[in-house]
Predict the 3D structure of the following.
Amino acid sequence: MALDAREATRASAHARPRREITTAFVVSRIAVLAVTAAILLYAAPPLAATGSWVALGLLCAVSATAAWLYLTRRFIPAKYLIPGTVFLVAFQVFPVVYTLTTAFTNFGDGHRGDKAEAVTAIETGSVRQAPGSPEYTMTVALRGDELVFLLVDPATKQVSLGAAGGLTPLDGARLGATGKVLAAPGVSVLKAPEAAARGPEISALAVPTPGGLIKANGLSRAVEGKATLGYDATCDCVRGDGGTWTADESRGYFVNAKGENLSQGWQVNVGLDNFSRVLTNPTISGHFAGVLGWNLVFALASVVGCFALGMGVALALHHPRMRGTRVYRIVLILPYAMPAFAMLLVWRDMFNRDFGLINQLLGTEIDWLGQTMTARFGVILVNLWLGFPYMFLVTTGALQAIPRELTEAASIDGAAPWTAFRRVTLPLLLVALTPLLISSFAFNFNNFNAIALTTDGGPFPAESPQVGGTDLLITYTFRLAFGAGGAQFGFAAAISVFIFAIVAVISAVAFRRTRRQEEVYA
Amino acid sequence: MRMRALGVATLATLAFTATACGSSQPAAPAASAGASSSAPAVGGGTLVIWADPPRVKPLKPFADRFGAENGVTVEVKEISKDNQVTFLTASQQGSGPDIMIGAHDWIGNLVQNGAIDPVTLTEEQKASFSAKAVQAVTFDGQIYGAPYALENIALIRNTDLAPDAPATIEDMVEQGKALKKDGKVDEVLCIPVGQKGDAFHVYPIFASGGGALFGATPSGDPDPKQVLLGSEGSVKAFGKLKELGEKGDGALRTSLTNENYIVNFAGGKCAYLVSGPWAISEVKKAGVAYDISAVPPFEGGQAATPFVGVQTFFVASKGKNKALAQEFVANYVTNKDVAKALYEADPRPPALTAALEEVRASDPDAGKFLDAGKDGLPMPAIPEMAAIWEPFGIAENAVVKGGDAAKAATAAQKAIDGSLKN
């Protein structure tokens, strides 16, 4: 009886079965916790240094949550979900959100910083040396705890003491050969390393004079300068000899009455301006249809061509009587294994009219990349060469999953090999490969490298130098956003939103059609 | 149970998102802090210099000496790609250097982004540089950096094939065509054109033909409001380029590109090469006997003025140690030995006249390049210049292929006016 009772208690203790602690379990826990701790240790000090308390708090909270989640035995699904979700957020959601928010700003060259930075830049850039003022030889010294400048006028050897209060003559200073002060009454002269260590203080000290301010220029010279432009908070404007520039918050510039702006601007929210610019800009709307049409042709030709070629080769090698398949496969994979960047440049040089391999082999004089049609043919050919090994690989895999009995049954039923392929093999292949074809289409639709490294969009007709014969939307708009007007990140972001919409619509339609097809054959 | 797990997952995700957004900016200084905290020196300061690859090594001893004199650590970091953009982005987030080395034509863009500070040079220092160098680093009436080297293109000729420097473009083309006819060379002239044109290399010929890019402001700076690419003079110049092109003399050819034009000259395939100091090492390696002279003008044409680029030390506005940076740029780089060391690492003529004199004695090429560029136009540093290159190049390509000069010039003008909103 007593024994039974003991057994009963043991049984109840085992009511919740404990998982066994395996090596994989321990290693995975340590890995996750180590990464969490590393991120915490890496990010916390700078956050604390810049006083970003909200971010620091969130970081700690998230680290604590992660630690707790992986130390507790509960929440099994969450343990698997969290890492993937974190990567999804960091590499997908965050960039998309960031791009979207950037599209509503004028972020770009001339508008990189905030207004305070622009004002500082305007004021610093406008400081002119006071006319006729001496170029002082400067020695840094301490008066008590206060940092002061000992300034020597090189022409008169007159020594003055400059402090935040102003400039006062100083007698009894001993000068060295370089014109610097070696010793002076009432102050202790700093040696070069001591002065260098106080760099920020030296930069900050401005000695007021009737004509402007004396500021250090390095560690051994000082000049009297005057800011010709100054910001006035009461009118939110910059005043100077040349006039008044008022802040225009809709453009992020200081603008004068004539509509001219100071070159240093700041980042502002411009609403839908970037989007409306994409829609109304005549250079974009005028060429959009043509570029989109070629872009679709390029993407389709790349996908269909690569797939047809890759599948053809895979079918040939799949034939039971084929010998030496391994050697063929290795050779066929080679273009895929070589770095595409280098290969694209090599192809570009092979297409050169006078020095290229292709014309030399064919004995022709064709300016391949200099005429629209041949250039288009050329880039599709290059893309085909780069892309078919991938299709060959995936088709080979998919073919092996199709039982040979099916084609045998078809031939027993009297189907010719072509019919068997069309009615049996191809539909089964497509069920497996259509998602890959769609993603390949989306990739080729935005295949920036294939164009930028071969033709760079060219050839360009003389009448419209902005848009070239092989320009894809992405290369064309890249040039608009980063070519002529410096970097315009806001505009570029708006364009990528449009391109994303186009690709998303095409892919969504294609996937919908695939699903229907799968229902038929599944 | 299941719902709770899901809730926790969502919450944690949200928290991660918030951190990701919140920390993206403040996290940036961490990178620089981590990288530059290598060895805090006696004084405790650190001066960070960013340079392109060929300049890192020659700068190092001077940087170290400066560091020892001032009790600071000086780091010279190598930046090899998209230097201007990297500098702007890093400056913006506070992880940039104290001193940046780059070309003077960046100044306009760096100033509009508030990335660099003016540098005050004494009258004596200004006088020690060649006037062209000082003119190049002056933007909007202010000096924005210490120049240290000049570069411009010139005509390099194979003295075995063409012993005398041609006086005019016509002479050169005639000589080149004669050599080609005799089968001694394959090309009349080696100058890159490519499928997008090459405005930088063709500019002296374009200028000699009467072409111009910008009008001038009252102060003599290029005026972005007056683009002259479609002007009468420029149309005439494009017409001259057409005559030199594929349907004419065959001196300009689209198949000659930046990748193959120097190789062709080094291989003896042409007698004349339009290029800069960067071509010399390859030409020397090939053992070609060469001489350097100015790009000749058209007969009775304007001067064939090349663009002059000036390599410059900039003081970063957002540097952490500005006093030291100013000291280094204004009072240390202006030193002859630094200029010479940089010259030896990468032979571009020094901007410092004293250093140039010494270099000229030992290496005549430097002096010849400089002479070839003495009438040169400092590359316009205004940000609007970015809008010029591509339309100009495409117009050049079009006329070289035999297109109509007026049409090409008008289209280029329209494209540039469109992007500058003139």
In short: Chain B touches chain A through 93 residues (CB under 8 Å). Residues 1-42 of chain B have pLDDT under 50 and may be disordered. Residues 41-151+309-377 of chain B form a domain with the D-Maltodextrin-Binding Protein; domain 2 fold (CATH 3.40.190.10). Residues 2-23 of chain B form the longest helix (22 residues).
